[in-house]
Amino acid sequence: KKRTVTQIEKNGYPDSIYINAAKIFQGIHTEKSKEKIQVQYGNSSDSPMMAFKDEYSRRVSYELAFNALKYQDLLEEILLDSSSYPCYSIPDELTSLLVVMLYDLQDRKFQERKIFDGEELVAEVQEIGHYLYRYMTKLAAALARCRIKRDALSIEYFVPETIWKQEQRASALPLYVWINTFKISLEDVIRDLEMKGFTKVESVSDFDHYTYAVDQHCHDVLVFPSSLKEELLNLDLFADYKLLLQ
């Protein structure tokens, strides 16, 4: 049976990913001085993370948490400006979940998320989701006001220039992938990739989208164009840990 990873698009995430992203964010969010604190995050250090369904779920949980961290100031401003915070029915321990889910809500243009087949629903995620939907119009308006105030075309313009340049450089780097030789051989990987429409080229200078090269120094390492990251991670080769992203 062919294994697949969790398919996650811009229509939301399973509840478990929001919970884990909020837990990660709780541990890394920027602590502000007492004079500047307007949003309280409480203490949820005792609550355990949910088990990751697969490596892809682990990765998107961390990505969601770090995106919330990157835009923490903006997200807090949106909550305050929309009057959706403070909310006395939501304890401080759930503020991290509120911020994480707000980032995702604006990322999918304030569209409702779908419920995944067979998904284990989490009461806290459902509660925060319904609360954000009630304030959806006010939240979208608050984001628009923030953008107008800063003359920003999108939220990417709220990121400091140094971080933006680092991200641009990182996104252009080729992807290096290890072959797990305990599970599969180079020949079998090449055969599998060719069946999926990939073409082997001599070097990164020959890249043209669905192409890859074998590293000149490590023959159990493949190199792919950076644009293929999402597609690669959805291959069963990654779901079965036969290929590992460096």
From TrEMBL:
Q: Which organism is it from?
A: Dasyornis broadbenti (rufous bristle-bird)
Single GO BP term: methylation
Report the GO molecular function annotations. Answer: methyltransferase activity
UniProt protein name? NSUN7 methyltransferase
**Which Pfam families does the UniProt record give?**
NSUN5_fdxn-like
* Gene that encodes it: Nsun7
What is the superkingdom listed in this entry's lineage?
Eukaryota
Q: Tell me which residues make up the NOL1/NOP2/NSUN 5/7 ferredoxin-like domain.
A: 173-228
Which terms are listed as keywords in the entry? Answer: Methyltransferase, Transferase
Keyword match Magnesium: no
